Amino acid sequence: MKLAALGEVMVELAPQAVSQGSGQKALLAQSYAGDTYNTAVYIARGGVEVSYVTLLGEDPYSEEVLTRLADEGIDTSAIARLPGRCPGLYMIQNTADGERYFTYWRGEAPARELFADPARRDALKAHLNQMDCLYLSGITLAIMNPEARAELLAFLNEYRANGGRVAFDSNYRPRLWASAEAARTVVAEFLQQADMALLTFEDEQALWGDERPGSCLKRNSDFGVAELVIKRGAEPVLLQVDGVLTAIDVPPVSSVVDTTGAGDSFNAGYLAARLQGASPQQSIAAGNRCAARVIGHRGAIIPRVEYFADAAGGAVAEAAC
Ligand code: ADP
């Protein structure tokens, strides 16, 4: 089974408090993250062949992204490079009340050109047509230009007609859209091309104004989503397959360190299991397990050693990858 994830990976700068004599000094830790990138990494760790599809620059940070993808065994052959452009960047700010704020510099990010260049598009479509599943998110759609998005939508229709499956997470980020109405229009079009929707209820509430999950379940059935998963933090995950609803408990996680990447890693666990033949119910359990590992550590992408560490003895189980 092969999956391609489409989207944007950014440079991340996160403050680290460091004691210096009697005071504290803030240093910045530099890393890489992005919703579909995070999911791609954990799907690959789950044993599925993954291709990451984006555009990068020719700068050292873009090089490093390629190296990290390759280190995860992810195919980078469909990543185009745009000379003179650099990946987007964001900074995390930790406030006194424990909240995290994100500031972005991504207006010129090369990933915004996804699907935009007609000269590259046919080769990219040929690459995507080799995949069993495509994964994209509302963030992927928000950063694309409208013409490129329309091309992608038309391609998904053909791709599904040829037996490919599409998985989608709405990941609604209001700042990326001109208005909620604009986001709803685009997200609705793509949900109508989604075989699997892996949605977070909080995002659905922000985008559609749902008070209860019922309206979310109904809307997505009306869009024709056959396999719908609704994540609700520590609350039971809702699964609706061909109209049949099940609520599946989330096992408690003893120490939740950082929920960054919870939804992305859940999606990865779910899709990796699903593509390897597990049932939707089994795949929810795999999604919960993957998210539990990630929220037990700081950062969206946790080191491989920690990811594969055996819960019982701390032994490294690289063989499982
Ligand atoms: P998002 O990161 O998109 O906001 P959620 O907060 O809904 O997503 O969490 C996604 C998944 O992460 C949940 O379905 C669950 O598996 C896991 N998770 C999140 N928060 C907790 C928690 N407090 N305890 C246990 N699991 C959690």
TrEMBL record:
Coiled coil: none annotated. Keywords: Kinase, Transferase. The keyword Transferase applies. Residues 2-303 form the Carbohydrate kinase PfkB domain. GO terms for molecular function: kinase activity. InterPro entries: Carboh/pur_kinase_PfkB_CS, PfkB_Carbo_kinase, PfkB_dom, Ribokinase-like. PROSITE patterns: PFKB_KINASES_2. Pfam families: PfkB (PF00294). The keyword Transmembrane helix does not apply. Belongs to the carbohydrate kinase PfkB family. This is Sugar kinase. It comes from Microbulbifer harenosus.
